[in-house]
Every structure is written in structure tokens, then in C-alpha cells.
Amino acid sequence: MKITITKNENDFDITAAWRIIAQMFEKPNSVIGLSTGQTTIGMHSVVSKIHAQYPFDVSKITLFNVDELTNLPREYFGSCYTMIKTQLAAPLGILEENFIMPPTMSDDFEKEAKLFEQRLAERGGADLQMLGIGMNGHIGINQPGTPFESETWVSPMDPDFEARVRRETRVPDDVVLGGLTRGIKNIMHTRKLILIAKGKRKAEIIKQAILGPVTTDIPASVVQLHPNCEILLDAEAASLIVDKI
Ligand code: GLP
Q1: Domain 2-216 of CATH type 3.90.550.10
Q2: What are phi and psi of 197, to 5 degrees?
């Protein structure tokens, strides 16, 4: 595992943005997985700004998000589709057919999960995953206890996470939320993983995920087993590991 520690949040956003752009240059038909949340807004904005000022060809780039909320309208501002579309896909001018996302509404999410994987596989599979980490160590929406062999599925929501999504998205109480997420196995089959975290609030979980045992109690700890994984942190997220690595 390569560990990169940036000196502050701004440098983190810029470094992460260049990782995404570098992938696009290295392989112009790359299949790139993103994550939504506070961690990635800044990096998406930097990629968009660089592309606006110095346009480069993204016509063959495929973007997708590692997870998607279910039972919300896709146009809802809190859906992953809308967040990624607004933050990155639209500013870059990614073609609609090259933005692969499961639907937020369906009668058969099991079928949608398979179709999502099939569409990624048809393009050669995921090259890069910018992988966020939850406060409890979740990746995608794979909560603690999820088997490492899990394949893309609809995960029940952790109550704290659900409360946060409800707060952030203002979804009505009578709507049952779920999360369609790439399984841990699918995430691990990505050619390159970059686990990303910034801010003091992530310092403890980063310590456990990176320096602790590989365990399903901390889903993100599985990245220790990936052959091509970078851990990209700002100084605050790295504060509890910096003198131990
Ligand atoms: C949610 C998303 C994850 C993301 C995580 C981190 O759980 N489904 O994909 O990695 O949030 O969010 P934040 O960056 O806001 O801490």
C-alpha cells in the first residue's frame, strides 16, 4: 500500500483531482468509479475547473458511482446520480451513455445490480475507484459485517447513515431507503483503488482500517489486501498514523 499524505485539505483535493485526470490520460477509455459525500466534492470541482480551462478529450471515458440510494427520484439532489452528474459528469461533458448508474427506482433491484455489473464488465471492468470511507469503516454502502465475498447488492442502511441521508436529502419519513452498492468483491476487482479521507473525524477509522487487522468489522480494512491500492489522506485524517508508518 502506498500512503500519500497531503499537507491540508486544499492539497488533498488537488492531488486527488490529478489522480483522476492522470487515469484519463493514461487510458482514454478508462472506466472510473467515484464516491459521493463531503470528501469528494472538492476534488470533483478541481477536475471540472482544470477541464474547463484546459479541455482534454473525455469522449471515451466511462464514469460510475460506487453506490446509489434506492427509492428516491433520480433527480433528487441527494441521489448519487444527480450529485455525480452535477459535480463532474455534466461539467466534463461525459456522454449520457458513458455515465453508468443503476436506477434509483425499480421493482427488481437484484436484476438492476446484475445489469450494472454487466455494463461495467462490457467496458472491460473498473480501472480506478476513488473510494470514500464511512465513519464506521463502510465502503460503498457495505456496512460492518458485510462478507468480503459480497457482490453488488442492496444493503440495509446503518441507522446513523440513514439519519444523515434523511437529514441531507430531506426525504419524507414514509419512504424506505436502501443502498445499492458494489459488493466488496466487486470493489476489490477494480484495477486500482484509491482510498480517500480527509479531516480529523476520519483519523481514528483510518488508523483502524490501515494499521489494524483485516476484518469484516471494518470493511475498509480489506483494501490492505489489494495489490494496487493507494491511501490518500490529508494531514488531519492521517494524524493518528503519521508516526506509525
Ligand atoms: C456515504 C457514501 C460513501 C462515501 C461515504 C463517505 O456512505 N455512500 O460512498 O464514501 O458516504 O462520506 P463523506 O465523504 O461525506 O464522509
Answers
A1: no
A2: -155, 145
- The rounded Å distance from CA 219 to ligand 1 centre is 13
Q: What is the C-alpha separation between 224 and 64, in angstroms, rounded?
A: 23
Which atom in ligand 1 lies closest to the alpha carbon of residue 141?
Answer: 8
**Distance from C-alpha of 220 to C-alpha of 139, rounded to nearest angstrom:** 6
Tell me the average pLDDT across 146-171.
Answer: 85
Q: Find residue 146's DSSP bridge partners.
A: none
Question: What angle, rounded to 10 degrees, do the helices at 38-53 and 9-26 form?
Answer: 60
Claim: this prediction has a pTM higher than 0.90: yes
Q: What pLDDT shows up at residue 158?
A: 74
Query: Considering only CA atoms, which of 57, 55, 50 is closest in space to residue 29?
Result: 57
Q: Let me know: does 220 contact 205? Beta carbons within 8 Å.
A: yes
**Alpha carbons 126 and 41: distance in angstroms, whole number:** 21
What is the gyration radius of the CA atoms in the chain, in angstroms? 17
Helix (H, G, I), strand (E, B) or coil at 5: strand
Q: Locate 105 and state its grid cell.
A: 427506482
Mean pLDDT of 204-209: 98
> Does 134 contact ligand 1 (Cβ within 6 A)?
yes
State residue 72's pLDDT score. Answer: 83
